[in-house]
Write a structure and sequence with these properties.
By secondary structure, this protein is of the alpha+beta class. Helices cover about 15% and strands about 30% of the residues.
Length: about 450
């Protein structure tokens, strides 16, 4: 038998010494001691479980258009994530794909492209599974995704690459493909016909209501245009509020998104998360409008409207009326009103190149028009403003540039030293010793036409 020393050294009876890599433990002789050792070995690590990692797959995930796909992501160790915050982003532009916080799914900031197409497994959260399922995969879903898990003030994240491929029909049995394609086309046609009939019936019932609402809006707009004056203002961008990625023109009349973080002071007025900028002008009373040129680029990402002066500018902001921001947004050729808790898709008959923003502080409304054809895009009720200033608000992202209308140039007034006529035109001189000619008088020629006759001097 070998004896154990406190340092883990075992001594044999023949005098030879064997050194162990770990110290020997004293023999446990009581049930209480065994319970203490069990608690230290298995329960203490759980108390120290605040540290974790977020793990994603080593290889890209492949999906087929129209099918569902799971982006795998898990915690290590497998902690319970039900009370943690799980955020999925499209990493190249930080577009919100899915948000889970406070035990619930939060769709207020979800990108419209993913609305109704994402879900987390609630059963998997309890064992650290934070994988995301995307339904009906599209080609536009392809790219790099980030899975961020936050517990209190600390967070970890992992990346998942998604590759999307189009479906290809098999070539072995072309007659089967043709049969099923024809069958599917017939079924789809039948469904479309039924849907069209149902839609036409619903539209016929709504025509009366819509006509009444249109007449109401037309009458209200006509009344406001006739009796209530609207003043045009020329907005200038406030450089002290601009996000460091935004590039403003020298005159403060244009803003575009840049790729380089600019060295600017981190003052309290500046936005530091969303790429936003405010107008210098603030309004507490009256009715005003200003025009914004949104350009011809259909892929540009932008939003514009008005915001309260007290609106939060640091960190991630939930854009909407609840936080004092009223505006509309353009994304992938679609226009959305920034309503709360979900954004509202707008019906636009013609894509606007200029948008007119009308602010009515007395009626507590802000309206957006297509300045090209005068169509009303959307109207927000603002509620009591309590005398707080309202500023023009702009958000600019990829491929977008917003330009504000400049005031007209004042007429040029010549100075006292500058002659009224060009120097190349000589001034007439009067002959010496003669009186000035008389004023022309009107007369008639032989054809009855009126002409001017100048009486000769005697």
């Amino acid at each position: 038998m070998a004896a154990c020393t406190p340092a883990g050294r075992a001594v044999k009876a023949d005098g030879k010494v064997l050194v162990s890599s770990r110290p020997c433990l004293p023999r446990v002789t009581s049930a209480l001691a065994r319970a203490v050792i069990f608690s230290c070995a298995f329960l203490v690590p759980e108390l120290e479980g605040a540290q974790f990692r977020v793990l994603g797959p080593d290889q890209p995930v492949t999906a087929v258009v129209g099918e569902d796909v799971v982006l795998p992501c898990r915690l290590s160790p497998r902690l319970n994530a039900e009370n943690m915050d799980v955020l999925w982003f499209w990493s190249t532009s930080s577009i919100h794909v899915h948000i889970y916080r406070s035990g619930l799914d939060d769709y207020s900031l979800q990108n419209p492209q993913y609305r109704g197409r994402t879900e987390l497994s609630k059963e998997g959260l309890s064992v650290g599974n934070v994988s995301l399922r995307i339904l009906s995969t599209r080609l536009s879903d392809e790219g790099q995704y980030r899975c961020r898990v936050q517990d209190g003030d600390s967070y970890e994240e992992a990346s998942v690459e998604l590759q999307v491929a189009e479906s290809i029909f098999p070539k072995e049995y072309p007659w089967k493909v043709a049969f099923f394609v024809t069958l599917a086309a017939c079924f789809a046609s039948l469904v479309v016909i039924c849907l069209l009939i149902s839609r036409l019936r619903a539209q016929s019932r709504e025509l009366g209501k819509r006509d009444a609402e249109i007449q109401k809006h037309v009458s209200e707009l006509r009344w406001r245009k006739t009796f209530v004056p609207v003043e045009e203002v020329h907005v200038t961008l406030d450089a002290d509020t601009a996000h460091p990625l935004l590039i403003l023109s020298d005159g403060g009349k244009s803003v575009r998104w840049g790729v380089t973080w600019q060295e600017v002071p981190d003052n309290p007025e500046r936005y530091d998360y969303w790429c936003c900028v405010l107008g210098q002008e603030g309004f507490t009373s009256g009715r005003y409008f200003w025009d914004v040129d949104v350009g011809k680029e259909e892929g540009g990402l932008w939003a514009l409207g008005v915001a309260k002066e007290s609106t939060e500018r640091k960190g991630e902001i939930n854009v909407g009326p609840r936080n004092g921001i009223w505006g509309i947004r353009h994304y992938n050729g679609e226009y959305w009103a920034l309503t709360s808790p979900y954004h509202t898709l707008l019906s636009v008959s013609k894509r606007p190149q200029r948008i007119r923003v009308t602010l009515d502080t007395e009626a507590q409304k802000v309206a957006f028009f297509n300045a090209d054809n005068k169509d009303l895009l959307y109207t927000f009720p603002m509620g009591p403003l309590s005398g707080e200033k309202i500023h023009p608000w702009f958000w600019v992202y990829r491929y977008a540039q917003l330009t504000l209308k400049s005031p007209p140039s004042p007429p040029r007034v010549p100075s006292e030293e500058e002659p009224l006529l060009p120097s190349c035109i000589p001034l007439p001189t009067l002959p010496t010793g003669r009186r000035a000619p008389r004023t022309p008088t009107a007369g008639h020629d032989q054809d009855g036409e009126i002409h001017a006759a100048v009486h000769e001097q005697p």
